[in-house]
Amino acid sequence: MRESGQGRGVVYAGRDRAYFDRRGLMRHANAWHLWALGVGAVISGHFSGWNGGLLQGGWGGMLVATLIIGLMYLGLTFAIAEMSPALPHTGGAYSFARTAMGPWGGFLTGLTENVEYVLAPAVIAFFIGTYMTGIFETPEAWQPAWWVGCYVLFVGLNIWGVALSFRVTLLVTLLALACLVVFWISALPHIDFMRFALDVGPGGTRLPEGNGPFLPNGVMGIFTAMPFAVWLFLAIEQLPLAAEESMDPKRDMPRGILLGFLTLSVSALAVLTLNPSVAGVGSFALSGSGEPLLDGFRAIYGDGLAKVLALVAVLGLVASFHTVVFAQGRQIFSLSRAGYFPTFLSLTHDRRRTPHLAMVFGAIVGLVVLTAIWLFAGEENRGSLIGFTLLNMAVFGAMLSYIMQSISFILLRRKLPDIERPFRNPLGVPGAVATIMIASVTLWFQVTGDPTYRAGIIGVALWFAVCVGYFALIGRHHLILSPEEEFALEHGSGGKR
Question: What stretches pass through the bilayer (predicted)?
Fold first, then answer.
């Protein structure tokens, strides 16, 4: 059976029940599991990555950037909290856009999110490797071994079973948050805000005595710091990817994502205020660090406990790596099950009912990109180039995804006003518009910012070109009536079957 896509330039290929039986997921998650999935995915950004914005805008610029980005994520999470229980499919962003904008809109939105979820684990793996190299004093050249070991372990845990995956997620997320709380409490007696947090001067110079201006690089510093502020919230939006593994997505999905955003907001402001303020640290030194939280611990407790503290700090990175690998697998799985990606990637494990091939494929792509940058980067700039270039590539994909999801929200409000919405976004269309505007500004300053980071965006463009070419030539002629496609054809954009 083959069916046209009503002028959308796509063709549907029929599949029997056996096709979907081999692509089934298992329901297990409750609201607390979803909260842990959202918080755990982001929490590594509170350990490493965000600090690059301190040199761009100084502490004040980074604070304002964080508040603006927080507003963007508030609008986004409220929109997702409305859409996800109304369209409770594993496709997440792709599912929303498919219903609102048709097959091409769904594919392009899914592709932007694919970039984010494949590259974000690679960024985290790099930071884990940096920590572990320092802890065990292994040669710098062995860093790729830490990356491979990280992928093998946590992809394996995710493949083992959804119940184990969610238990590990909840455990490591709670431990990571406990680590942050210990740091906050430890830091309070040791902070000298004016002397250390404000030690960045105009042009990114260091002020030995601190007491620098609130915005050392003016208003422009706020905008250039925004891509780094994103790392304090990046991936909270992954919760809808667990919709088909949630016991009650219509009730638990809004609770999980909104409670997760609240938790991350408190943590982000605490980390941003306390970490640079610790005596002996400072915003300037922290801005180029691959392990800012560990630098804070060292300043408080001395080098004698450094390795023990580093192991504790790795918990935050592990929490995010484990949870984003989960999202990566579900995201590739959903696009593959519907035929946008090769369909063999959506096969689930016969006994475990986990999308093992999707997770392995995503891990391989992430490792290839990470290793390629490692090989071509000079040794002197290798750390900052890999960490922050990959970070910006992931952020670039995320911003495009947020714009597309917000547009989807607006269109769904207009096109499907009467579908059941268990949760209704109190910010409505204005909140979605604000998200689009802030994400667009962030994108602009990524494109026009540091030339080193622009190289990463070129890499994303090549990624898009390859995947769009595949879909245009092959994928769109072999789409499958997955749950996302069925819903879209019945209610949304794409016409009747």
Answer: 32-50, 62-81, 117-136, 142-161, 168-187, 214-236, 257-285, 305-327, 357-377, 383-404, 425-447, 453-473
